Amino acid sequence: MKHKKIKNIKAIKSIVARLKKQRKRVVFTNGCFDILHVGHIRYLRKAKSLGDILVVGLNTDRSVKQIKGEKRPIVPQKERAEVLASLECVDYLVLFDEPDPFSLVEKVKPTILVKGADWPKDKIIGGDVVEKAGGRVVRIPLVVGASSTGVIERIIRAYCGK
Question: What is the 3-state secondary structure (H, E, C) of 91-112?
């Protein structure tokens, strides 16, 4: 299913340029978002609350494997994209194939770049690009105990007795 919020990079660049001319604050975040959980939902809601439009960069299956290993993702990119795009707080979604979002951040040039508080500010990829363009970087606290890996481990314990 093709969702109207899921765009390619060319379309996202055009949309963001138009929104910025309208003085809209564009928030950008990215991630794998494999096995959506309450931590993801709270994070995305908080990210959206920082601006007018939330653009989410979603790692493709190939890039998730590079980051998380061969057993991931659990949920294929088309399904992850559809689930994220169905969230009210997500305005646009763009898939990216690189292991990090630098090129995407550089092209989108959001007003606000958001990452989880587990990322030291100086390690947030693209943060320098956003700040040089007059934007800001915001770190959002994580929900303790909420992670895709934690969900996977609970499933394994419950169904495999490990």
Answer: CEEEEECCCCCHHHHHHHCCCE
Q: Are residues 67 and 32 in contact, defined by beta-carbon separation less than 8 angstroms?
A: yes
Angle formed at CA 138 by CA 92 and CA 112, multiple of 5 degrees: 45
Structural domains in the chain, sorted by start: 6-160 (3.40.50.620)
Q: What is the pTM of this model?
A: 0.93
- Give residue-wise pLDDT tens across range 25-50: 999 999 999 999 999 999 999 999 99
Q: Which two tokens stand for residue 47?
A: 């990210």
Q: How many Cβ atoms from other residues are within 10 Å of residue 120's Cβ? A: 9
User: What 3-state DSSP class applies to 149?
Assistant: helix
Taking the CB of residue 150, how many other CB atoms lie within 10 A of it?
Answer: 13
Closest CA to 95 of 10, 7, 18, 29: 7
Under a CB-based contact definition with an 8 Å cutoff, are residues 102 and 125 in contact? Answer: yes
Residue 144: per-residue pLDDT:
82
Check residue 162 and give its pLDDT.
62
CA distance linking residue 106 with residue 76, whole number of Å: 26
Distance in angstroms (rounded) separating the CA atoms of residues 49 and 152: 29
